[in-house]
Amino acid sequence: MVVWLLVGASSASAQEKSGVKPGFTLTPGSAHIVLIRPSIQVGAQSTAGMFEPNADWTAQARDALGAALRTAERRLGNDVTDYVEPVGADAARLAEYQALFDTVAASVIEYQFFVGNRLPTKKRKDQFAWSLGPEVATLPGLAGADYALFVSTEDHFGSTGRKVLQIFAALARVPVTAGVHRGFAGLVDLRTGDLVWLNADWQMGGDVRDAAGAEKRVRQLLAGFPGKPAAAP
Amino acid sequence: MTLRRFPSIALAAAALALAAPVHAANTLIPAGQRIAVAGSVLTVQPDAEWNRLGVRPGRYAERWTRDGDQLDALTFYGGIADGKTLFREVNRKERPLPRVAATMLVTDIPILLENSYRVARGIAAMTIERVEPARFAGSDGVHFTYSYIRLDESLHRRGEAFGAIIRGRLYLITYEAPALYYYERSAPTARRVVDSARV
């Protein structure tokens, strides 16, 4: 027990979970934010650690997270609307931007939030400079919006075999994780393409397949969202 | 704290030591100084700041980045000798990496890179796009462009490389980034590093 408490405490202190572009502020009621359709992936983690997508779980998570996000949108203190899905070539462009957002978020975790591996050029005071590039604003459906909110979750639930392996590995003092629960939420300024706020973590809480878990996950994803009225939860 | 708890604490310390990812420190590459790269006689003089990653892609290689190796990566392969590989072997018996040969032609360099990527980096869809003669590090060499998608991702990436065989050894610099935004953003700075290369 002590082991897990200590491991948990250590990773929490060595790892930051959110960042804001220096000088960025968002006044409640001042901006039109478009919530890009969340990218959601749920599956199992095999004994060997391979990801096996599960369509049923992903559908359950899509419903549960969708409902939790709709509730949360009302509390964000700004005009938040859902993105109208493009079709054809534009759908492919959107998917590419979602993949780029995931890659940028993963890079922020690895090279900025994780202090031990921070890049020297990211160490300077008040440094949080990340971008998807100004072209992101040319995605259809974003005209007239000030910001785009990207949300991405990926959950690998450890199989029984993986959990058994984890127990034996722990006896041999080899770290083996069972399950991946990563989530990223980021606000992109559509005038510049710059990431102005990011909340990201490799190990988030909440089982995204049910309503209560999805509500918890959304609360974690949007924790510290800028421009939220002080009274909002 | 009671004495009884000490074994747990010791175990926790051991677990922590094992759990902490081992990273050699990333270092700052300042602008304007000529430096040797990849532990070799290949030198470059960047005109902008870069970060050198502590984790090296191979024994004879070194990687620089501005925003992380998934967003932009400038990789130097310094004087790889006859019989050696670009990366460390993953599975020498079943999936051996292609080896550099002192007798290689410059046109073999793109094929060597492509085959090395397929084995070592699990890149299934890689296309070599344009191959042309070019001067590199004071020698006759090759310039080529390529694109690829990693197995576990849907992001399209672009790359370009300059290489030459100099005194029987392979010298190569590659620059890679996502096709969206990042490739064009850092390509001019990366090309200026390549232009400054000397052996």
What would you say this structure looks like, in words?
Chain B: Residues 1-24 form the signal peptide. Chain B: Keywords: Signal. The complex is a heterodimer of chains A (233) and B (199). Chain A is α/β, with parallel strands linked by helices and 233 residues long. In chain A, 34% of the residues lie in helices and 21% in strands. Chain A has five helices and eight strands, in the order H-E-E-E-E-H-E-H-E-H-E-E-H. In chain A, strands 1, 2, 3, 4, 5, 6, 7 and 8 form an eight-stranded mixed β-sheet that branches. In chain A, strand 7 (180-189) and strand 8 form a beta hairpin. The radius of gyration of chain A is 18 Å and the shape is globular. With 199 residues, chain B is of the alpha+beta class. Chain B contains three helices and ten strands. In chain B, the strands form two sheets. Chain B has an eight-stranded antiparallel β-sheet, sandwiched between helices. A two-stranded antiparallel sheet of chain B has the order 2-3. In chain B, a hairpin with a 6-residue loop joins strand 2 and strand 3. The N and C termini of chain B lie far apart (61 Å). Residues 1-21 of chain B have low confidence and may be disordered. Chains A and B meet through helix 1 and helix 3 of A and helix 1 of B.
Structural key phrases:
heterodimer; A: 233 residues; alpha/beta; 8-stranded mixed beta sheet; 5 helices; globular; disordered N terminus; B: 199 residues; alpha+beta; 8-stranded antiparallel beta sheet; two-stranded antiparallel sheet; 3 helices; 10 strands
Topology:
The complex is a heterodimer of chains A (about 230) and B (about 200).
Chain A: H1 2-14, E1 18-20, E2 32-35, E3 39-45, E4 51-53, H2 55-73, E5 79-82, H3 89-113, E6 147-158, H4 160-171, E7 180-189, E8 195-201, H5 211-221
Parallel strand pairs in A: 2-5, 2-6, 3-6
Antiparallel strand pairs in A: 1-8, 3-4, 6-7, 7-8
Chain B: H1 6-19, E1 27-29, E2 35-36, E3 43-44, E4 50-52, E5 61-65, E6 73-80, H2 108-120, E7 125-136, E8 139-149, E9 157-166, E10 169-178, H3 182-195
Antiparallel strand pairs in B: 1-4, 2-3, 4-5, 5-6, 6-10, 7-8, 8-9, 9-10
